[in-house]
Specification:
The complex is a heterotrimer of chains A (about 280), B (about 290) and C (about 350).
Chain A (H helix, E strand, L loop, with lengths): L1 H19 L5 H26 L7 H12 L1 H20 L3 H6 L4 H29 L12 H27 L6 H14 L14 H6 L1 H14 L14 H32 L10
Helix pairs in contact in A: 1-6, 2-3, 2-6, 3-6, 3-10, 4-6, 4-7, 4-8, 6-7, 7-10, 7-11, 10-11
Chain B lengths: L17 H22 L3 H22 L4 H25 L1 H7 L3 H6 L4 H31 L8 H29 L1 H18 L10 H6 L4 H13 L3 H4 L4 H33 L8
Chain C lengths: L9 E13 L8 E14 L4 E5 L6 H8 L7 E6 L2 E2 L4 H4 L3 E5 L11 H10 L5 H14 L15 H13 L5 E5 L7 H17 L4 E6 L2 H7 L2 E6 L2 E6 L1 H6 L5 E8 L6 H4 L4 E8 L3 E8 L5 H10 L4 E7 L3 H9 L3 H8 L1
Parallel strand pairs in C: 3-8, 3-9, 6-7, 7-8
Antiparallel strand pairs in C: 1-2, 1-4, 4-5, 9-10, 11-13, 11-14, 12-13
The chains are: A mainly alpha (about 280), B mainly alpha (about 290), C alpha/beta (about 350).
């Protein structure tokens, strides 16, 4: 275990940090960290203000805002993990060397995801900060259930990393459009995770997809930690206690971690058969 | 390998130049993209169905807010137009950054063709996927969510669309010149500005929400006025939510198209000269 | 009136290129300058096969980039096919092409034929002419059977052959070859050299500028060679004339048992102009450039005094490598190490 961490996880986390922090200009980095997430949430704030008469005190406002703010982890951790595989294969062209090194590739990918988690945390924190200070999101820092928040965050991020490895492994077998796989999946999951609206608004036959998604339960836990009783207004998961939500999320996390290792082996074999470990998807 | 190579010189025709070379280059550069998409069809799923699913999220946001039905239509049309924005930004402007990475950019520069033609070829090649994406979003969106279209003038809509595209692609070529020189920085800027552009362009809500002054200020982005005009032409409540009259917006788009395309030519030439001075064309660190 | 055929294919006057580089993150605000080229003067007449020989980092690629209009000089000027590369790049480009070693051009999903057709279109070549040339060139480089293979499925050597075809497909007046045989196996490299030689022979007006750090390649192909090191041209003449400079000297190649200690003792011997030492696993290789044959006896005595056993001793004809050593004071390999 120590060897795996020393050879696979630690260098990958260091490398991921070098890549993430390699900004030509700190100003640009700030723009990226502030502008991008805040603009994303502003779209929703303006959509809300354009049609709603209820004002920012309505529970749906906090629901939408926080769902969007926290969803940034899906982009940075889940999509980011699959993006790392592509970067290593196509931009830095080192994936073939990683393959022949005595490291554990899935663990390496976890390591690469770690700095992205930090970047995602920065974006989420900034968005929530702006929400509290400028956009009247009803979050009171003194009333936040921090143990619940942090525990749910850690569990959710591990689950997202596992999902990212599944996606990333699949990415290895694609020659065209591989760059969009992670982002596209994150965009599609927006619909089924209760990030922007309660699942009960979806047609009945689509709702089970949302109930199968770990992101649904994760976002519910995070909202409960930040909003307190206001989060219980929506009936979707109101009947489940925190413990039950943790249990479901825990089982799903274990499932996706297992699936990550299985999927990696499966797609890895396909990629090797097709000679795609060092392929370029250029046109 | 001992035979002399004369290319049967007597039969060789003079190479094309000017407009003929321009058109040949567009076709040749579009070719890899079109053929690539035929050879691996995974894009059909990722470029059409997945973006549609993402758009549906915004539809349900409006449903959660009990928004009027026209707003569902705004999301559908806005979502369709994001396809063109993405094609311009990532399949054209940023593509020069990738071409430097894969070694093709120097070969494009030292050839006698025009960089504008290369860029247009890239954009044209991506048009198939882009158009299909837009059609899927509009088609499925209309079918599933019963979007209440109320088209007032198909002719004006067509003109607005064409002018918006001309201005948008002109803007894209201007940005491509920035990529040429600044490479990695520009890539990060475009990536960082994606959501801000979606926001200030009003892809999903009427731009009038910004207030008149600010809305006019952001009209320099072609899709801002293009979308505003499309909403006015396609939906019953569109005219009441519009920023300026359709005719006025048409005129502004025409001016933007001319200005952007002309400026693109100037910028491309200027940036290429600067890139040559600084050695940026082959430096993969930039 | 000067005819175009009278103007040199390449004219370089007082050319210099300085790169500004930023330091590490800590030294971010310090801009360092690196001189890639300094005061280069060269003229290549039409129809000449010209070589630029030097170690890695000598400035060969920077010079080619300037001549093909990818890079501007910091000082001086250059003209290719009669046109200034900075003032009139659009006049230069229809007349030239470039092939680099280790190049990955084109798109992996396209076949060889498709990639080549695409590049031909950027030069305005009509489809019929392009097809004919592609077929002819693929036949010559023995790649015709792979014409419909995706370029991503080609080996490095075959991909380089495709790149070579890409460069010659446009029938340029001046072609620039930047280490075209880099990374190729012996057979493929020989094929490429034969191809280039035959292309030059077919029409008198064609000009080639080849950069290489393979001495034998320059010796074999080039009408004239410029030796370049640290951005400066040290000598420029035909390979035979350059070697003739050393004909008065005697060049001995020796293998001896492993030598310990410095070469100072040998360098100071009477009649020894230069000595280059290459340490191998259990022996040493020594190259001596001597003023005359009889200086060898002093060298042998010195070796005996150092208890070195002579395993092999040969007198040989000077090569371009020897010319380089004579000019620079170290071998090509040592010069590359110093550059890095």
């Amino acid at each position: 275990m120590k060897g795996i961490i020393r050879r696979s996880f630690a260098p990958a986390a260091w490398l991921g940090w070098q890549v993430e922090s390699n900004w030509a200009s700190p100003l640009l980095f700030l723009a990226f960290s502030v502008l991008k997430p805040v603009a994303g949430v502003l779209i929703l704030v303006f959509m809300y203000n354009t049609v709603s008469r209820a004002g920012t005190s309505a529970p749906i406002y906090g629901y939408i805002y926080l769902g969007n703010a926290l969803y940034v982890y899906v982009g940075t951790v889940m999509a980011g993990t699959s993006y790392s595989i592509l970067e290593d294969r196509e931009r830095y062209r080192v994936l073939k060397y990683l393959y022949i090194a005595p490291i554990n590739i899935p663990v390496y990918l976890f390591g690469r995801a770690t700095p992205r988690f930090l970047a995602g945390s920065l974006a989420a924190a900034i968005t929530i900060f702006f929400g509290i200070v400028f956009f009247k999101v009803p979050v009171h820092l003194t009333l936040v259930n921090w143990p619940l928040f942090l525990t749910a965050l850690m569990l959710g991020v591990v689950c997202l990393a596992g999902m990212g490895i599944v996606l990333g492994s699949w990415t290895l077998t694609l020659r065209t459009q591989p760059w969009f796989l992670g982002e596209s999946t994150a965009a599609a999951l927006y619909l089924f995770s209760g990030a922007l609206f309660p699942l009960t608004l979806l047609p009945r036959f689509l709702q089970p997809i949302g109930y199968l998604m770990p992101i649904t339960y994760w976002l519910e836990l995070m909202r409960r930690a930040l909003l307190g009783p206001a989060a219980a207004v929506f009936p979707t998961l109101a009947t489940l206690s925190n413990a039950q939500l943790f249990l479901i999320l825990g089982v799903q996390t274990a499932f996706f971690l297992g699936l990550a290792f299985v999927a990696f082996r499966f797609f890895d074999r396909i990629a090797r058969d097709k000679g795609l470990i060092d392929a370029l998807s250029d046109f | 390998m001992n035979a002399p190579i004369a290319f049967a010189a007597a039969k060789t025709t003079r190479p094309d130049s000017g407009w003929r070379l321009f058109l040949r280059t567009i076709v040749a550069r579009a070719y890899p993209r079109v053929v690539g998409q035929q050879r691996e069809k995974a894009w059909l799923f990722f470029e059409t169905f997945i973006p549609f699913v993402a758009i549906v999220s915004y539809v349900y946001v409006y449903r959660a807010l009990d928004a009027p039905p026209d707003y569902i239509g705004f999301v559908v049309i806005g979502g369709a137009m994001t396809a063109f924005w993405i094609n311009v930004m990532w399949n054209m402007s940023a593509q020069l950054y990738w071409e430097k990475d894969n070694g093709n950019l120097p070969l494009y520069i030292i050839a006698p063709n025009s960089l504008m033609a290369i860029l247009l070829g890239m954009a044209l090649g991506g048009m198939l996927a882009t158009t299909l994406r837009a059609i899927v979003i509009v088609g499925l969106g209309t079918l599933l969510f019963h979007v209440p279209f109320a088209l007032s003038s198909a002719a004006e809509l067509a003109v607005i669309f064409v002018l918006s595209m001309a201005a948008l692609y002109g803007l894209g070529m201007m940005l491509a010149s920035v990529f040429l020189l600044h490479g990695r920085n520009a890539f990060q800027i475009v990536s960082a500005l994606q959501e801000p552009v979606y926001f200030i362009t009003g892809f999903y809500f009427p731009i009038r929400s910004f207030g008149f002054t600010l809305a006019v200020a952001v009209s320099a982005i072609p899709l801002t006025l293009g979308l505003d005009a499309m909403r006015q032409l396609m939906f019953a409540s569109g005219p009441t939510l519009g920023l300026l009259s359709v005719r006025m917006e048409m005129a502004i788009l025409a001016v933007l198209a001319i200005v952007f395309v002309y400026t693109a030519k100037l910028w491309l030439d200027h940036m290429e000269r600067r890139a040559v001075q600084e050695g940026a064309l082959t430096d993969r660190r930039r | 009136m000067m005819h175009m055929s009278d103007t040199p294919a390449i004219r370089i006057e007082n050319l210099g290129r300085v790169y500004k580089t930023r330091g590490t993150r800590r030294e971010r605000h310090q801009t360092k300058e690196r001189v890639a080229l300094c005061d280069v003067n060269l003229e290549v007449p039409r129809g000449e096969f010209f070589g630029l020989l030097g170690p890695n980092g000598a400035g060969k690629t920077s010079l080619i980039k300037i001549l093909v209009t990818l890079l501007a000089p910091t000082t001086g000027r250059a003209r290719v096919a009669g046109f200034d590369v900075v003032e009139n790049p659009h006049q230069v480009r229809p007349r030239i092409n470039m092939v680099s070693g280790g190049e990955s051009s084109g798109y992996g999903l396209l076949t060889v034929r498709e990639n080549l057709w695409m590049f031909s279109q950027f030069y305005g070549i009509d489809n019929k002419t392009a097809r004919g040339r592609i077929d002819e060139l693929l036949e010559i480089v023995h790649l015709k059977d792979r014409a419909n293979t995706k370029s991503s499925d080609l080996s490095t050597g075959l991909r380089q052959k495709m790149n070579i075809v890409r460069g010659f497909l446009t029938d340029p007046e001046v072609i620039f070859l930047d280490e075209p045989t880099l990374g190729l196996d012996v057979g493929a490299a020989r094929d490429v050299r034969n191809f280039i030689r035959n292309w030059m022979l077919a029409q008198s007006g064609r000009t080639t500028l080849l950069t290489t750090h393979y001495m034998a390649e320059a010796d074999d192909l080039c009408d004239r060679v410029a030796i370049i090191n640290e951005g400066r041209v040290l000598a420029c003449d035909s390979p035979s004339n350059l070697k003739r400079r050393l004909r008065q000297e005697a060049i001995f190649h020796m293998e001896v048992s492993a030598l310990n200690g410095t070469l100072d003792a040998f360098q100071k011997l009477p009649g020894v102009r230069k000595v280059v030492h290459t340490a191998l696993d259990d022996k040493s290789q020594l190259e001596f450039i001597l003023d005359a044959d009889d200086a060898i006896s002093g060298v042998i005595s010195a070796l005996t005094a150092h208890r070195a056993q002579i395993l092999n001793l040969q007198k040989r004809e000077p090569t371009l490598e020897d010319v380089f050593v004579d000019l620079v004071g170290m071998s090509l390999a040592e010069a590359e190490k110093k550059q890095s």
